Amino acid sequence: MADFFFESVTEKKRPYVAPLRHLLGKFRYPFAPGDSVGIKLHWGEKGNKSYLPPDYAGEISHWLIAQGAKPFIFDTTVLYSGGRHTAEDSLKTAAAHGYTPEFLGCPVVIADGMDGRNVVSIPAGYKHFETVQVGNVFDKAQGFVIFSHFKGHMVSLFGGSIKNISMGFASRAQKQRMHSDYHPILNKKKCTRCGLCTEICPTKAASISEPDYPVYDLKKCIGCAQCIAMCQESALKIFWDSDMTVFQEKLIETAAAVWKKIQDKSIVINSLMNITVECDCLAGKNPVISKDIGFIGGYHPVEVDEESLKMAGADIFEKVHPGIPWQRQFSYAREIDF
Ligand code: SF4
Ligand code: SF4
């Protein structure tokens, strides 16, 4: 039986800190004194206007501290250019959005490391992924709070806790693997011929000989995405696979693999407020498509996302993102026993 609870927002002014405090009080507290607890969230792309304000993360952090835990807040770097492509830029963006250790009372961390290489492969054993590669945050934390802004998304229809665990924990290479089946295509105008892609290519598919540009042997290429993800110049592009059902399944597989690892000591919270057309990865103002609803807490990301979608109504997202087979996320989650 689903195990979740809800706190509505009735105040006229954001941020809704008191309702979140009430919600936190309803959890069966899973952490032990002294536990290091990672709070996974998204502090918004540079220039984004709809990200969750740091007041909520601060409330969660202080709730954990009051019970003897040692929280830290984290996210991972992203593929696209902007204010979160590198760890350094992402921390600057976090600080600009108010996510500072001083305000939050705890450290702010980039899980995949300052160079994007602090990653680890964990077992998956599903049809798309035998393993998934994620930021290596597991040694740092005994437990997790998955705190997500529930809103629309152009490829998955909605983004909540499933997406926060899946894309949110994923290394840049894993993000690429989820997004497409692809071959690297070089934009010579951007390439500095630094050779990094050839150094990191696991199959020697990428090679370079001075003074030429790198070349990619597609017979050897396994589509691991490492070169595209790691090129600091964004000189490599992907061939986009438009099969949306595969994307939904890959999203679920990555989340399920992470969840298997963290489920014993994790709680999940979705914030149904400032529900926008698109995710907080986009810069600029994002149209709001629903009134503020409240917070949903629980112990499983699929349950909490399903309930969030019911409360907000799938139709508000389907109007702005027609044709996405989002139902596959839930049917596939059941098939693989997520
Ligand atoms: S890593 Fe990027 S910039 Fe460097 S050689 Fe490869 S494609 Fe060019
Ligand atoms: S995708 Fe992976 S295997 Fe293919 S060229 Fe890039 S690093 Fe090498």
List keywords for this structure.
two-stranded antiparallel sheet, binds iron/sulfur cluster, seven-stranded mixed beta sheet, globular, Rossmann fold
Describe the structure.
The protein is an alpha/beta fold. It has two domains: 4-172 and 242-335, LarA, N-terminal domain (Rossmann fold, 3-Layer(aba) Sandwich); 182-240, Alpha-Beta Plaits (2-Layer Sandwich). 32% of the residues lie in helices and 18% in strands. The chain has helices spanning 17-24, 54-66, 87-96, 101-104, 161-169, 172-179, 196-200, 226-230, 244-262, 301-312, 314-320, 327-335, and strands at residues 4-8, 36-40, 70-75, 108-110, 119-123, 131-135, 143-149, 151-153, 157-159, 185-186, 206-207, 215-216, 236-237, 266-272, 294-298. Strands 1-15-14-7-2-3-4 form a seven-stranded mixed beta sheet, sandwiched between helices. It binds iron/sulfur cluster (2 copies). One iron/sulfur cluster binds at residues 186, 191-197, 214, 231, 233, 235-236.
Number of helices: 12
| Percentage of β-strand residues | 15-25%
Give unreliable regions as ranges. none
Tell me the CATH superfamily of the largest domain: LarA, N-terminal domain
Determine Rg (CA atoms, Å).
Answer: 20 Å
Number of domains: 2
The overall strand count is 15
Q: Could you give the order of strands across the largest sheet?
A: 1-15-14-7-2-3-4
The overall pLDDT, averaged over residues, is 91
Order of helices and strands: EHEHEHHEEEEEEHHEHEEHEHEEHHH
Q: How would you sum up the global shape?
A: globular
The top-level CATH class of the largest domain is Alpha Beta
CATH architecture label name of the largest domain: 3-Layer(aba) Sandwich
Largest sheet at a glance?
Answer: 7 strands, mixed
The percentage helix is 25-40%
